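seq:
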Amino acid sequence: MRIVIAGPERPGGHDPEETSMSAPATHVSDHQHPDPARPDVGAALFSTWSVGTPERQRATVDAIAATWEGRPWPDRNLLSYSVYAGTDGDTLMHYSQWTSEEAYFDFVRNHRQERNDEIDTAVPGIKRVGINSYQLYRSHVPDPARRAAEAPGAIVTVDIRFDAEASGRRREWVDTVIEALTATSSPDCGLLGAHFHLLADGEAHLSSAEDRVFNYAEWTSEEVYDESFAAVAGAPSPAWEKVLEFPGFLGTTVRRYHLLRSFTPHDRQAPQQG
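struct:
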């Protein structure tokens, strides 16, 4: 864990003296995970970059850290920002928590481009695949005390799709999943938390669809996730059969990540895990 003292804003940004008096320093960590269930999050932004190789994953995250370490925290409405490496050796996932989607767009107008320019200079050829805005609907945490004390060993994201006629039943599907998890998951099963987000309608350049659910799941390890998934797929219980046979359910896309770096304002550390 490191505490980073805020440096002066780059040319074109805010006045350094005004910024240093009004903005906290940026805290950087390689092990503190965000809390997806924190109540002050109004918008959860998830985006992915394609960078090509594991070496470029690490180099890109180092470049991201350099742009954040040299600046004060950009906006009080940004609660946390975390970057994860995909186990595919190519993808980076960015997860930022905002008080509102409007605050995110204000950051885009005032701060994002200069940071991206510095990152692209350090690591040319990054492909920015897409970004989506979500709102948390429900979380399932088998053992809150364990989750508060133990940092996840793996993050598994599940992008769930429905056909158009079933789009209005996304909440019902999530409720059905949580019923199955409650019925079949023990507190020591290795699932620390499953956080189900609904894709939100946003400004034009964000993807908007009513047929998507996004599960950000915290596991103790990839191996434990594989074992749990195999048990469900091999002999699904009646509760899980209801999930798999839900009308309009089309399928899922699963990806796995490991946290590389997280950023928070230095004066607000409590809501993080680990």
